[in-house]
Amino acid sequence: MSFDFRVLDFIREHLRSAALDLIMPLITALGDGGMIWIILSAAFLLFKKTRRLGFAMSAALIIEALLCNVIIKTAVSRVRPYDINSAISLLIKPPSDSSFPSGHTGASFAAASALLFSKSRLAAPALLLALAIGFSRLYLYVHFPTDVIFGALLGIVSGFIGAMIIGRVYKRRGSLK
Questions:
Q1: From its phi and psi, is residue 30 left (phi > 0), alpha (psi between -120 and 50) or beta?
Q2: Could you tell me the pTM of the whole model?
Q3: DSSP state letters, 10-64
């Protein structure tokens, strides 16, 4: 765990600023419950031109949520860094679930990766937002770096699987209505 705390302490000592103290809670809030990604998926589902992207993102988000929140978080039950280093004053309300893996990061990378593997031009901005949300979890001291790294990897795999499943469905049926 020394790697984890070295990274977190580096961020606090060298990157912390008043401006980021205001911005990072807003960025992390975008990932609360995966809501920004769910809304984007729902918006894509409304239009035939983007429906395939909406299905791919939805599938990726469901896969990631099941793996992350139902299976892995429950099995691992890792404490959060602020529970170990109680000298930290949080800028957001303390999360109530366990730390590993980062669900914010996982959902963000699942949605962004679904866009990437579906060859959407929106993949690059989505990946940048996913990176910002993942970094915000470290900046806010609510996740260890290994939580965020594993969340990102889990999200990428979920995005790949979601995009592949929907791609195959579309190939077999021609289109979904």
A1: alpha
A2: 0.92
A3: HIIIII--HHHHHHHHHHHHHTGGGHHHHHHHHHHHTSTTTHHHHHHHHHHHHHH
How many domains, the chain?
1
What does the alpha-carbon distance between residue 114 and residue 82 come to, in Å, rounded to a whole number? 32
Rounded Cα distance between 113 and 160, Å, is 6
pLDDT digits (tens, 9 = 90+) for 6-55: 999 999 999 999 999 999 999 999 999 999 999 999 999 999 999 999 99
> Within 13 A of 59's CA, how many CA atoms are on the CB side?
23
Among 101, 44, 97, residue whose Cα is nearest residue 67: 101
Range of the domain at 7: 2-173
Average pLDDT over residues 88-114: 93
Burial of 11 (0-12, 13-18, 19+ CB in 10 A): middle
The residues near 94 (Cβ < 8 Å, ≥ 6 apart) are 80, 82, 142
User: Is 27 in contact with 128 (CB distance < 8 Å)?
Assistant: no
CATH number for position 26: 1.10.606.20
Q: How far apart are CA 163 and CA 61, in angstroms?
A: 11
